[in-house]
Amino acid sequence: MNLLKPILLLFLFMLSTQCQQEKAPEAVVSKRPDPHSFSRPDEAVTKHLDLNLKVDFDQKILSGFARWTISAKDSATTIVFDTRDLNIQKVTLGAAEKETTWTLAEPHPIFGSALTVRIEPKTEMVSIYYATRPEAAALGWMDPAQTASKKLPFLFTQGQAILTRTWIPCQDSPGIRVTYNAAIQTPSGMMAVMSAENPQQQSSDGKYTFRMAQPIPPYLIALAVGELAFQPVGNRTGVYAEPKVLPDAAWEFADMEKMLVAAESLYGPYAWGRYDLVVLPPGFPFGGMENPRLTFATPTVITHDRALVSLVAHELAHSWSGNLVTNATWNDFWLNEGFTVYFERRIMEALYGKDYTHMLALLEYGELQNELEDLGATNPDTRLKLDLENRDPDEGVTTIAYQKGALFLHFLEEKVGRNKFDAFLKQYFKAHEFQTMTTEKFLEYLKTNLPETAGMEATIREWILEPGLPDNAPKPESNRLSKAESAALGTLPSRLQTARWTSHEWVHYILHLPDTLDAAALGKVDQAFNFTRSGNAEILCVWYEKAIRQGYSPQILPQIETFLVEVGRRRFLTPIYKAFKESGQVETARQIFEKAKNGYHSVSRNSIEELLKNG
Ligand SMILES: [Zn+2]
């Protein structure tokens, strides 16, 4: 991170030169409520987007215009948008499309360039004509070889945290909400879907139109284009996927409708109309992304035994925590993710019982412990309320926001009782729907609306503002995983013993195999259970990591390499590359990365590049 320092100084300098054109420098800086956006919404703010884009797979660019409806103060003479790596062609005002002047600031490598557009009194519409560049960080351009059919290419966007500005000029802050309509032109034979009302059939001319009537933050504007087909799984739920993947996907996610019903009975009506899911190619960097009305999901959760469907419960839960009540800045990220993990577990409990959910909670508790160990328990990044100013907000995407955040809510539930806590959460979502939330505002709301927490202020502040895990943190337990753990420490378990095991038990079993087992011993385990050829990516990930660290990887290197080349999900890539690095095999890791990196989305590519840089 030393590398960042000179850049930061440059950034601050840019800010200060911008400020000199205005009256009081401090006053202008304070008008940027979000440290990761150049926009000044209290001067002029975006309200609605009409997006019109043509998808060009040959050049890997999107081109067209973003027409913004804005609301500006009478005194405002400019409106500021976030952009990064965009080619801006012209900017016009109003329905008459009168050309106006604009400036694009020197680019900052993380935050991009402020686009400052001169507006007139009473300007209500600003149209920006532009094209993206092939390197646009949000855009995952997949070659046909990276898809299931291998016939047509595929495109998906990933906006969170601050990448939407690389494909749409926008006020890219989670604190700003907009509605949108879009017209997308695709090549023939392809379907476009968005975080909006979606088509269910391919159009003959490749033209698609979309409408998102509820206001959302720009990071939730999303587009996927590919050879897609649709299959309903319930009245309000369905799955999009490549035709080859669709039947398996629809079977895997058959419980979507039940999950939706369970979620509504916990925390109130679903606010978005339909809830569908699109299965992307394996290059998608995340497990899922909660784009409203249409979750984007990795194909690595299709395991033919519904073992990993908690991912759907997670993304669905975001329809309340995150999409309905949104973190105001990325420093408040735990309000999105901690609440969502808690809510996800409650959905899973409603469908599959406590036993099952305890397994998920304990596995994730292990991930939290590892993260705390990696970061160090006094590291400020282990606080729930983060300070990511002048940093890439992607650095805040750690297990802390998710698991420490969820543990805090479990702690509150334990203290005040489930009934009271559920009533509180339901009211919290209702009272703040389509609004943003800061950590401070949440604490205030908690104090007023959950009076049972009176007297707990100090401990609550410790949870939120101090690093590490408080002593009073609940520790999840799971009988089923305890059995798997004992089995790992004894002799090879029998088929009878493991007949009813889920992949969670297998993952836990692998994690607890003694560090002292050498390559020959791991080979015997592999022979017994065939982990190297498992169809479950969670099992493969922990198994490959163990194999690399304990000297068994030379025997199964081709399989590890195939996995790393085919799968682009960062959650799996990071531990495997890290295991190579930490066991003195960084050159092997670098060689594989060279072959694999073109198939990775920038989010994963940048993380792995950073990881392999030194060592
Ligand atoms: Zn999430």
Could you explain the architecture of this structure?
It is a single chain. The protein has 615 residues and is an alpha+beta fold. It has 3 domains: 197 residues, Immunoglobulin-like, CATH 2.60.40; 141 residues, Orthogonal Bundle (Neutral Protease, domain 2); 123 residues, Peptidase M1, leukotriene A4 hydrolase/aminopeptidase C-terminal domain (Serine Threonine Protein Phosphatase 5, Tetratricopeptide repeat, Alpha Horseshoe), CATH 1.25.40.320. Helix content is 40%, strand content 19%. The protein has 20 helices and 21 strands. Strands 5-4-8-2-1-11-13 form a 7-stranded mixed sheet, with no helix packed on it. Helix 4 crosses helix 5, helix 7 packs across helix 8 and helix 8 crosses helix 9. The longest helix is centred in the middle third of the chain and has 22 residues.
What are the main properties of this structure?
615 residues, 40% helix, seven-stranded mixed β-sheet, 3 domains, alpha+beta, binds zinc ion, 20 helices, Serine Threonine Protein Phosphatase 5, Tetratricopeptide repeat, Immunoglobulin-like, five-stranded mixed β-sheet, Neutral Protease, domain 2, single chain
